[in-house]
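Hi V.,

You were right to ask for the full record rather than a summary. Here it is.
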Amino acid sequence: MNQNERRQYLLKFLLQESKKYNGIKIPTGASEQKILLRGLMNIRMPQPADPKFLAIQDQYLQEETKEKGIVDLCKLTPIQKGIYLWKGDITTLRCDAIVNAANSSMCGCFVPNHACIDNAIHTYAGIQLRLACADLMEKQGHEEPTGTAKITPAFNLPCKYILHTVGPIIENRVTDQDRRLLQCCYRSCLELAEKNNIKSIAFCCISTGMFHFPNEEAARIAASTVMQYRSETGSRMEVIFNVFKDVDEQIYRRLLTTDGSV
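Predicted structure:
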């Protein structure tokens, strides 16, 4: 199968899973098909799937990521010893673990084609990720508290693991409790990574964007928490600060250079 054939197979399978999709026709254009496929994957509830579907999905997603361009950590230049700043798509980064800014359900974003990182990670990891997260939540028996973290396999992503953490949501102004909880997100991920012998971890900009934590303050907390952890523990784990926006790259570059004050 080529990518077009795989995509059409996946679309037909997902559309046949539910009667509510009766009447939906597969578009003829590749870009429209990709939008529909991502949307269907985004709203699919956590449940097992046919092994053939999973095999074709895995082939399709891995090829899509290859086409986007996989970035190896070893090809990046550190901004400090063991510390990297990289602007790009975190779903294309090959390192030991990436961090997902999750919601308290831990099961991903159910909004079709939403622009959040949670949606992107679940999309390109594949439907196995939502089921793995749902299993964790079922065993836990309650939603994930803010500031804590869970670990899952990365399935079809180039990295090995995904660490899922729930950041604070800013309603009006940032409180001391919000700051403390954001610190806990970074600390929880670092500690969980160490427990799982992870040698490199990429942090997204937790709680910014949809959760409205101011970029400058969030970056300052992120950088200072990581530096403090490394100083206290002597950790040699490599840390990548992953950004997607120019403004975040400028902020982190200032904070992480010798002239910056964390």
